[in-house]
Amino acid sequence: MVPLSAPAVRGVKICGLTEEAGFDACIAHGADWVGFVFFDRSPRCVTPAQARALSGRHAGGPARVGLFVHPDDETLARVLDGVSLDILQIYASFERAAEVYARFGVPVWLSQPVSARADLPVACPAAVERILIEPKPPASASRPGGNAQKLDWGLMQGWTPSFPWMLAGGLTPDNVAQAIEQSGAPAVDVSSGVESAPGLKSPDAIARFIQNARSALFSG
Fold first, then answer.
1. Are the C-beta atoms of residues 34 and 62 closer than 8 Å to each other?
2. Is the pLDDT at 3 greater than 60, yes or no?
3. Are 65 and 87 in contact (CB under 8 A)?
4. d(CA 47, CA 37)
5. 36, 73, 69: which is closest to 55 by C-alpha?
6. Of residues 194 and 8, more confidently modeled
7. Cα–Cα distances in Å, from 171 out to 56, 73, 129, 146, 191?
8. Distance from C-alpha of 139 to C-alpha of 118, rounded to nearest angstrom
9. Of the residues 55, 129, 189, 204, which has the fewest C-beta atoms closer than 10 A?
């Protein structure tokens, strides 16, 4: 068994923010990224104006991430006209991700759903800054993303990609440390796992999630 290393600072993203208490908790507890969802089938969907109002509560701080599902250029342009975003996180192909980066010049993250080790990407296009690894949604799902499913974190053991990546799907304050220890994830993303109701973030859960992620050990 490989000995556990000392705790490492983990990148933490809190996604699906819709209200002030959740956003303020991200600021207070030092989240690295805050995410706004621009997908109308999600209970966490916000308008550019709502995202701008939340983001304006604190100058600087976490990078602002906009989440989009197979967006066209018109949608991206409309949102970017309404709120300043540091990163575009999209569900799309590698080719489309490259087009988005070329068109808008904003760093692009690409979501990569997996169900087996063979699904893990072996390379990352230069136009993609980071890949998010998350479970493949069930056939009955109405939207992509983790859908509160937990990935088999052991799939990532021994996987040493040369590009930045992030683990998402089914994470909570109670399991995030274990997820990091088993997967070696350098960063983690949570949405429903820190909510008291769909779209309503719990400041206490956000605080515990960030604390537990940052104190996790890595056995890689």
1. yes
2. no
3. yes
4. 9
5. 36
6. 194
7. 28, 31, 22, 9, 8
8. 20
9. 204
**Strand-pair partners of 66:** 36, 88
Distance CA 166, CA 182 (A): 14
Q: What is the pLDDT of residues 112-137, one digit of tens each?
A: 999 999 999 999 999 999 999 999 87
Cα gap 94→85, rounded to integer Å: 21
**Burial code of 109-144, b = ≥16 C-beta within 10 A, e = fewer?**
bbbbbbeeeeeebeebeebbbbbbbbbbbeeeeeeb
Query: For every residue of 130-168, which 3-state class applies, written as one string?
Result: EEEEEECCCCCCCCCCCCCCCCCHHHHCCCCCCCCEEEE
* CA-based R_g, the chain, Å: 16
Strand-pair partners of 91: 69
CA dist 180 and 171 (Å) reads: 10
**Structural domains for the chain:** 11-116+126-136+144-214 (3.20.20.70)
Q: pLDDT above 70 covers what percent of the chain?
A: 89
Q: Where are the alpha helices (DSSP H) in 83-169?
A: 94-104
User: 17-59: per-residue pLDDT in tens?
Assistant: 999 999 999 999 999 999 999 999 999 999 999 999 999 999 9
**Distance from first CA to last CA of the chain, Å, rounded?**
10
Which is it for strands 11-14 and 33-37: parallel, antiparallel or unpaired? parallel
Q: What per-residue confidence (pLDDT) applies to 146?
A: 44
Q: Tokens 């490259």 — which residue?
A: 98
Residue 199, SS3? coil
